[in-house]
Every structure is written in structure tokens, then in C-alpha cells.
């Protein structure tokens, strides 16, 4: 009887379509049916016929057994386990209703399982923190990925050298588009956002196409194409680099892989030797370098942190990107800047004030509490946009190097780092013991706050000398 039962796979079909980045119209064209019929199939208002199932598996190279397998029994079992949680003890949940849910509403079943899984993970993390207050907090995949990059000082020799070879091959072919066509039989197409379904880049294996959002600017288009080249042609080098460490979670693994692919893409667009020579010739002028290599200001600033090749070293830089709320979305250290591990939130650093002067480069010498001096340039950068109805995101980026290197930069040429006035900043308020900072948000760790019944200073807190 089970063999003759109609096959309803709506949620699975919808999930497949979204994973492939297809619209209902595009999938309908691939399968030779109407978009409205695809919509009916996805809503489980029509069963999937044997003929259509064969067309699906052939068009998208799927495993028939894996795609068409009946998930209802597995869903029913897993939902039954979830509903045995004491949280639901006072609710009457007959087994028949659970089976009906799994069979008739697989999408709702999947949502319930994901939600309960997330709830369990958070409960376990909270319990571990409470039971072991002295232990480190649960692994943060973003911090783990940043640590991995920092350990290598943001230079990956195998990826960089292979990317340089690829760049030379691409130059001989004439362009990345021509190279992809010749080497991979892949056609690059630029399509509007409604067709791209909010993807900036999508590899359409079925039609041997690399699809790019046509609202991207030139630098972003090139970077997306280069990212695909990195994923397919630097696969071995990326895997070998990642094999050096065991990551604590799949999320951390994905973030590191993404970071290394982006590194490879930048190395393809700005090959090490040529870029390093241009850096010297242009005295680290980021805007001039961006014009020369057809890259964005941020892409060049990012690439400047990677110039650690033995025998071809350039000035080591620290890079940070923040939003107007002060959230750090990218942090790369090649300069031993203490902000890399602990901070980035001092409001006296110009990276937080350049939002008032968009597009303008602001220079600043920095004096840290431990006596280290750095030089920084900061500027706003924008992402998104490209059409009237698309949101634009504005962030601020900063590059910082040891003050002794500043005279080599066009931004501080002729200055004397030993005598120039520097802004006293802190790594973060919790680790800064400057007593007279009017911008302080919280007191430093380990310092007692003094009463101010009879005296109030310019700083929000006065603390003892202990």
C-alpha cells in the first residue's frame, strides 16, 4: 500500500530550489512545466509524479533514493523525542497527531526540530557557564576563525603563490571571464537581482554558468568572479592550510574556508609581487592602488595586511572594520596591534568619528597606555546599493601600523613620529587605566570606584590608586 501512496515532497522541493538559487520560473523551465505547477507542488497541493521525479533527478543530478525517500517516519520519531521534553509534559499530544504533523506538514516539522535543537544548545551552554564559572565560555566560531588568521599573521604562502600563478594564466587568457570559459567551460553572466534571488554570485552547474548580480560595481563584480576562481582552483591549497588545525565547530570551519577563499580572490586580483612593487611606488596610497588594480578601497586596505612573504616583506598593518554602532565585523592583524585581541571600541580613535566625514581619509597618531605608538588612516566605505530600492551599508575601516613606519606612507610623509602629537587612546575601557578620560564608558577591571559626594571630575569615574 505504501508503494502506491502519492508522493508529496513540497518542502523538500522548495528547499532544493532555494539551495540551487532558482526562481520557480527557472525551475519550471528546466522541468518543462508551468511556474504555477511548481508552486502547487511546493505547497503539497499536487503529488510528484514518477516522470517529474526522473526529470528532477536528471536535471539537477540528484540521487533518486535520497531525494524521494520518505521522511515522515523519521520526522515522526524525532518529533516524538522532542515532545517528550518535560517542557511539554502538561500537553496532551496523541501519537496519531504527531504522525499527521510529520506526514502532512513536513516543513512545520523541520521548523519545530530546528527550534528545539537551538533551544537545547543554548540551555547546555548556559548550564555549563553556571556550573563552571571559572571556565572559558563556549567556543565562539567567529573568534576562532579570527585567531586562526591571526596565528598566520594573515599570510598564507601556498594560497598566495598559487594565486599568483593563476593571475598570470588569467592575464594570458585576456580576462577571468575568458579563462573560466577556456578552463572550465563556464559562461559568466550578469543578471538583475530578481533573477538572482538576492544572491551576489551563484554557480549554475546545470547550465554551466557563473551568475553575478548586475547591480554590483566593477570592483565587486571582479571580486565575486575571483572568489569563484579561488573556490574551484585553490581548493587543494585551502584544504591543506585548514588541515593544520582542528576546528571546534562546522561554523568555524566554514568561516575559515570563506576567509581563505576571499584571501585567494584578493591575491588573484592583486598578485603579490606586482602589488608589493606598486605599494612601494605609490607610498601606500590606498586610493591610487585601488585605481591601479581596479579594486575597492577596502579590498586594497585588506590586501595591505597580507604582505608577509619572506624576502618581500612590506609594512605590517592592522585592519579593522566597524559599523556606526561600533560593532566590529572584520579584524586582521599583521602589526601586533593590541586591539586585535581585546578592543577596537575606544571612541577617541578616528575610526569611530569618520562617519561624520564620509569618503574622507582621516589620519591620526595614536598613543597607547603602555607607551606603544601607532599611525592610523581611517575612512568610510559603502556596500550594497546599485539601484534605487537596494539598501546601502556604510561602515568605517582603519589601517594602523607602528608609528616608526609612518614616514614611508604618503599620508605622513615628512613627519617625525617621535615629536608629533598623538591622541592618547585605550585598547578598551575595561583594560585602560587612564584616570582623566572624559570618554570612558566603564571603569577598568580591578579598580575600586571612589565616592564623589564632595568632588566630581571631568571623567565619569574616579578610582583609587590600587
What's the arrangement of secondary structure elements?
Elements: H1 10-20, H2 24-31, H3 35-42, H4 50-59, H5 64-68, H6 72-83, H7 95-104, H8 106-131, H9 141-151, H10 157-173, H11 176-184, E1 187-191, H12 193-196, E2 201-204, E3 209-213, H13 218-233, H14 235-242, H15 250-269, H16 272-281, H17 286-293, H18 297-304, E4 318-322, E5 328-333, H19 339-342, E6 362-367, E7 373-384, E8 392-402, E9 423-424
Parallel strand pairs: 1-3, 6-9
Antiparallel strand pairs: 2-3, 4-5, 4-8, 6-7, 7-8
Helix pairs in contact: 2-3, 6-7, 6-8, 9-15, 10-11, 10-15, 13-15, 17-18
What does this protein structure show overall?
It contains 19 helices and nine strands. Helix 6 (about 70-85) crosses helix 7 (about 95-105) and helix 6 packs parallel to helix 8. It has helices at about 10-20, 25-30, 35-40, 50-60, 65-70, 70-85, 95-105, 105-130, 140-150, 155-175, 175-185, 195, 220-235, 235-240, 250-270, 270-280, 285-295, 295-305, 340; strands at about 185-190, 200-205, 210-215, 320, 330-335, 360-365, 375-385, 390-400, 425. The protein folds into four domains: about 1-110, lambda repressor-like DNA-binding domains (434 Repressor (Amino-terminal Domain), Orthogonal Bundle), CATH 1.10.260; about 140-270, Arc Repressor Mutant, subunit A; about 315-430, 2-Layer Sandwich (Beta-Lactamase); about 435-465, no CATH class. The chain is about 45% helix and about 10% strand. The chain is globular and about 85 Å long.
